[in-house]
Amino acid sequence: MEYQSLKHTFDPVFNADSKILILGSFPSVKSRENNFFYGHPQNRFWKVMANVLDWEVPSTIEEKKTMLLSNHVAVWDVIASCSIQGSSDTSIKDVVVNDFSKILENSKVERIYVNGGKAYELYHKYAEKVTGIKAVKLPSTSPANAAWSLEKLTKIWKETIEY
Prior knowledge:
By secondary structure, the chain is of the alpha/beta class. 34% of the residues lie in helices and 21% in strands.
């Protein structure tokens, strides 16, 4: 599979009341097609968040935004642009990191969580010194992380995330 040089094409989800920020690495092929976060039907992010927040699993983009914002959760990705093969985090290179100042200056975000190892690695390497906020790594909700069941993901996310 060939590398594609891509830019992140959709805005972060946040508002003035957001208290925590959850970061992925870069949108998957399906997310890019849907123009919204965690668009692959096998990605468990929306189920995990619904379970953590005691919310019905959202299906539309508007329902997803409502669930996040009603619970003071912001979502975005670490990467603004990169070269990538398909949806493979392990293939990511030529990274340009997003500017988090817009979110941090216009919200109450004090805690940052990252969804998976690659997002954590990239945030730690490129963004932590700029934001001054250490990120907490959560196990990835990606279907590539098959070792973690939905129940196990939900448990660790619920135990880790502080509002």
